[in-house]
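In the design runs reported in the main text, the only information available to the sequence generator was the tokenized backbone. The following block is the verbatim input for one such run; it is reproduced so that readers can re-run the procedure and compare outputs position by position.
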């Protein structure tokens, strides 16, 4: 029986592939689990339409990720930290703090796990960090943006 696959199936094919399978395999497994459709003109047109819509959504997602990447790379974030004598930072600037600063300054919500730091920042200065951007809908769409961060010290006054 000829079927059109609705998803990737190991050792058989991927979405939209037309495959010849045994009748029992198609009737008892692929069709009831909605993993495939019977091959005919109506279903073929349906799959082609799905492919076009999927490609449009995919392109929109690529454009969205690129737009965020451009915005991050053209911007810089300033984070003010408390410092003591000799510009020694109290504590450290962590991924969470950087994610919060990005959201407050740029309005872009970034998961802290997508911010790449070798170690927490413990000094004032200018740093370039990597922010990994990926699509939730398409696992193969991802970009890495370089964000400029200014760590500025504010001397804490003793009371």
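Verbatim output:
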């Amino acid at each position: 029986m000829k079927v059109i696959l609705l998803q990737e199936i190991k050792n058989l094919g991927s979405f939209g592939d037309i495959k010849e399978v045994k009748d029992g395999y198609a009737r008892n497994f692929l069709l009831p689990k909605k993993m495939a459709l019977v091959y005919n003109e109506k279903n073929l047109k349906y799959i082609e339409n799905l492919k076009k819509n999927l490609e449009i959504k995919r392109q929109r997602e690529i454009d969205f990720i690129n737009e965020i990447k451009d915005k991050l790379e053209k911007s810089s974030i300033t984070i003010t930290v408390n410092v003591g004598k000799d510009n020694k930072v109290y504590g450290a600037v962590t991924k969470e703090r950087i994610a919060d600063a990005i959201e407050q300054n740029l309005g872009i919500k970034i998961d802290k796990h997508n911010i790449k730091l070798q170690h927490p920042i413990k000094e004032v200065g200018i740093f370039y960090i990597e922010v990994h951007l990926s699509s939730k809908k398409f696992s193969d769409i991802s970009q890495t943006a370089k964000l400029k961060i200014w760590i500025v010290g504010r001397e804490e006054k003793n009371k």
